[in-house]
Specification:
The complex is a heterodimer. By secondary structure, chain A is mainly beta. Chain A has no helices and 12 strands. In chain A, the strands form 3 sheets. In chain A, strands 2, 5, 6, 10, 11 and 12 form a 6-stranded mixed sheet that branches. Chain A has a 4-stranded antiparallel sheet with strand order 3-9-8-7, with no helix packed on it. In chain A, strands 1-4 form a two-stranded antiparallel sheet. In chain A, a hairpin with a 6-residue loop joins strand 5 and strand 6. Chain A is globular, with a radius of gyration of 14 Å. By secondary structure, chain B is an all-beta fold. Chain B is 0% helix and 51% strand. Chain B is built from no helices and 11 strands. In chain B, the strands form 2 sheets. In chain B, strands 2, 4, 5, 6, 9, 10 and 11 form a 7-stranded mixed sheet that branches. In chain B, a hairpin with a 2-residue loop joins strand 5 and strand 6. Chain B starts with a strand and ends with a strand. Classes of the chains: A mainly beta, B mainly beta. At the A-B interface, strand 5, strand 6, strand 10 and strand 11 of A face strand 5, strand 9 and strand 10 of B.
Chain lengths: 114, 114
């Protein structure tokens, strides 16, 4: 069975600090896909990244970076030099190859304090 | 141009009523979804349609009935609304299954059942 765990329910950091959001997943498939989505206070869901299980290279996009480690079944998300606009709920998600559904974690609410 | 649009954005109604939420996507995608986000921000898939055909039907009360008149539309009809139906409902679409393409989400419909 597939499962996504985001153990951090809520995190608060002061602006300009770095912050890492944890994501641990469970799957029996060898081919799967991992995602991060952002939900700002306005409510919409915004796609951030998709990784497949064969690509363990870490990815950096501006202040955002992702650390995918199959050995620990983790796909952590780091925001460097956080800004108030980063305040949002962040969801990690998993989809197994050939499956039409995507399973979301419960989300981590991130507060960036000015 | 809005890629995935849902109407209404807010829906307040009494228990026992029947209501519909409409969703349209102009991306030419083959697959559409309905997700429910509860008060704790947990996102759970409800239904998935591919080319007007039901693919996923998770454990959802049969008071919820999706209808896909064409592949650009996936409406959600809810009969005999209950207090526990209060949530934000998100429509989404993707070209293929979610493992191949990112999901594009609508802005959500906040349903409040009184």
């Amino acid at each position: 069975a597939q499962k996504v765990t985001q153990a951090q329910t809520e995190i608060s950091v002061v602006e300009k600090e770095d912050v890492t959001l944890d994501c641990v997943y469970e799957t029996r498939d060898t081919t799967y896909y991992l995602f991060w989505y952002k939900q700002p206070p306005s409510g919409e869901l915004v796609f951030l990244i998709r990784r497949n299980s064969f690509d363990e290279q870490n990815e950096i996009s501006g202040r955002y970076s992702w650390n995918f480690q199959k050995s620990t079944s983790s796909f952590n998300f780091t925001i460097t030099a956080s800004q108030v606009v980063d305040s949002a709920v962040y969801f990690c998600a998993l989809s197994e190859a050939g499956d039409d559904k995507i399973i979301f974690g419960k989300g981590t609410r991130l507060h960036i304090l000015p | 141009d809005t890629a995935v649009s849902q109407t209404p954005k807010y829906l307040v109604t009494q228990m026992g009523n029947d209501k519909s939420i409409k969703c349209e996507q102009n991306l030419g995608h083959d697959t559409m979804y309905w997700y429910k986000q509860d008060s704790k921000k947990f996102l759970k898939i409800m239904f998935s349609y591919n080319n007007k055909e039901l693919i996923i039907n998770e454990t959802v009360p049969n008071r919820f009935s999706p209808k896909s008149p064409d592949k650009a539309h996936l409406n959600l009809h809810i009969n005999s609304l209950e207090l526990g139906d209060s949530a934000v409902y998100f429509c989404a679409s993707s070209q293929d299954g979610p493992e191949n393409e990112k999901l594009f989400f609508g802005s959500g419909t906040q349903l409040s059942v009184l």
